[in-house]
Structures are given as C-alpha cells and as structure tokens.
Amino acid sequence: MDASSACAGPEHRPRVTELRLSAFKSHRGAVFPLDSLTLFAGPSGSGKTGALGAYEALARLGAGYCLDEAFGDAAACVPEQARPDAEGRRGFRIGCTVDGPVGPVRLDLAVQTEPELRVAGERLSGSGQVLLSTALRDPGRRTVQAAWHTAGAVPVTRAPLPDDRLSTALLPLRVAGRTRGQRLVLAAAEQVVVALRTVFACDPRPERMRAPVPLGEGRLLGGCDNLAEVLHRTRAECATRHAALVAASRTGCAGPVEDLAARPLGDGRVRAVLDRGPLGATPVERLGDGELRYLALALVLLTGPGVLAMDPVAEVLPARQTLTVLADGLDRCLDRRQARELLGLAARMGERGHVRLVGTVQDGTCAAGVPGVTVVDLGRE
C-alpha cells in the first residue's frame, strides 16, 4: 500500500462488506452483504445471533485467538444435519469479503470439529488469484500445509503453519515482502486483519451497570459493567462528544437531563448519575434496563476504539481504521423511540466513515424512515 492510502477517504478503510455462512449452525449457502449500518431481523431461532457470532469469531481469529477461544463451543457451530464423512470428520465453513485499498479480498475458512478441532483449510484470494491456501495434509501433525503467492524465482512458498489459528493473521510474521507477489499477499492480509481487529462486540448488561465501580484505565467493557468509570474519563477528555452523549440521553431517558457525570464516593469508586438540573441528580441504579442499555450503546457509538476495551491496531494509522460495533439484541429492552434514536445516531456517525454497526433486532420495522439502514430479514428465508 502506498502512503496516499493513509489519507484516503472512508471507502478505502478496510471494512467487511460480505459475510458468508456456507455451512454454519442453521445457515447453509448464506451470503449477507454488510453496509455501514446493517440489521439482522427475525424471530427467535431465525439465525440472527448465529450470523453475528460468526462475524465475532472471525474478528477474534483476526486478532490472533486460537479456534477454541474464538468459537467457544465449536461443536455447536456444525449444522445439525451435517453427517460425518468416511473418516468421521465433521465441521463448518464460514468466510467474509473485505474491501479496502487493494480491492475486494475474500477469506474462506473450513474448520474441522470432529474428531479434533483444527483448521481443515483456508483460502485468501484477491486481484483474481489465490494469495494463500492451506490444507490439512497429515492428520497426525498439528499443522496445516500453507502455500502463498510469491511471484519471484519461486512462484509459491510452502511452509507448515499451526492448525488452530488463522494463517492470514500469521502471514506478516512469515512473508518477507521482497517480491511484488509477496507485497500483494502482505497488503491483502493486512487489509483483512485490520478490518477484523477493529471490531467491538457490545451487549450492555443493566444488572451489572448499576453498582459503583473503582476507577481504572477507563476502557469500556463489552458488557458495559464499568459505565460510571468511562463516563468519568470521557467527560473530562472530550467536551464535544460528551455534549453529544448528553443530547442523545435526553431522547433516551425519561425526564429532564442536564448532564451525565460520575461522582467520586471517597473510597476509590465512582457512581454514574443523571443531573436533572433543579430536580437534583438521579443515580443510574434507579434507571430502567432500557435506559441503561440506551446510554451504554450511545456511549459506544460516540467514543471509538481509544475508549473501548479492544486491542488497537497500533501499527495502522487511526485515519485508516473503521470501528465496527457488533450489537446482538440491539433493541432488547428498548422502546421504538429509543431504538430509532440509536439507529439515527449510528447513521450519523457512519456518514463520517469511522463507525459501522451490525446488529440484531426482533423487528426490523424499527429502522423505518432511518436513512442508510440495511435490514436483512431472516424471517422471510
């Protein structure tokens, strides 16, 4: 990639534009385009959470997690109707497409869960050619045979790689980048890894958000347990974004809201409160579940990677990164007004190119009238 790509617009920041579930849980041959604001809608059992879970697992693999860390109960990812082959093997297949400076790059992954959890095959392709492929050649060894594009004196380089990790994420440590082909492989791998690593999975848990919390580094957890701690930090660091959060809270919370603050308790802990102006302050423990989830999700959309508990892609300029928020049950506990306000906020932040949102909702009609929302209705499949 050349230096000019670092200053390119949002369309050149690496981003996942397609999720493929070839054989994963209840999905077979499913292809889902992903825009800057995508909602999977449908009743319970339609596969919404499964689709989002596949995306999150790919993100974990891109961050260097091994298979069991990325998928948890990997056996539950195998389609129920899948039958073992002649050698007793079962598994699942997922993939994604990442757009960015080098154009569309496809990542496809086959995972074997029985008799042992391991990568059965991986393929990275772009620019009309296969850039990396791996295959499980010897079941007795805990490696896969990898081959990547070189386009030098030797057209392809072959080497064994671990069978429990994403080989694409390991390429920067193995490819020298001396030939044009190697540089293309590195650029494609970097594009995929950056897009996958800039993911924050968020599922606010109101029951954990009400208690005072100790002050720490001020990075918001995925369950938003430490909401008070993060409010204490963000209120002091960025007046503009804090003012935007206060404005959003006026729509999502009942009653007047003059400010959001975290008040020290004198024992190293802080308590989050809503300043009601002349009416005094309301501790967040008195808020309803929907109000707390709304506040937490608004905070996520308005802050960014520097405030969220995720591994930053330190070697890539922030201007070339796009945060993707994964929100399972985005509308859980929210009324229609709160859901629409959150979607409107996500749409406004998405217009700047720095935030993308992929979520699940029970009823996709909550997005009616909100510009820029793509609803994938799984209930109609």
List keywords for this structure.
eight-stranded antiparallel sheet, single chain, 381 residues, alpha+beta, disordered N terminus, five-stranded parallel sheet, 9 helices, 28% helix
Walk me through the topology:
Layout: E1 15-24, E2 27-33, E3 37-41, H1 48-62, H2 67-71, E4 90-99, E5 105-114, E6 118-126, E7 129-135, E8 143-149, E9 156-162, H3 167-174, H4 180-197, E10 199-201, H5 206-209, E11 213-214, H6 227-237, H7 239-252, E12 259-264, E13 269-275, E14 281-283, H8 289-303, E15 323-327, H9 336-351, E16 355-361, E17 374-377
Parallel strand pairs: 3-16, 3-17, 10-15, 15-16
Antiparallel strand pairs: 1-2, 1-4, 4-5, 5-6, 6-7, 7-8, 8-9, 11-13, 12-13, 13-14
Could you explain the architecture of this structure?
The protein contains nine helices and 17 strands. By secondary structure, it is of the alpha+beta class. The protein has an eight-stranded antiparallel sheet, covered by helices on one side. A five-stranded parallel sheet has the order 10-15-16-3-17. Strand 6 (118-126) and strand 7 form a beta hairpin. The longest helix is centred in the middle third of the chain and has 18 residues, at 180-197. 45% of the residues are buried.
What is the average per-residue confidence, as pLDDT, rounded to a whole number? 91
Cα radius of gyration in angstroms:
22 Å
Helix count from the secondary structure assignment: 9
Sheet with most strands: strand arrangement: 2-1-4-5-6-7-8-9
Number of DSSP strand runs? 17
Q: Which spans have pLDDT < 50 for at least 5 consecutive residues?
A: 1-8
Series of H and E elements: EEEHHEEEEEEHHEHEHHEEEHEHEE
Strand content: 25-35%
Tell me the overall shape. elongated
Secondary structure: helix percent:
25-40%
Tell me the major beta sheet.
8 strands, antiparallel
Structural class comes to alpha+beta
End-to-end span in angstroms? Answer: 40 Å
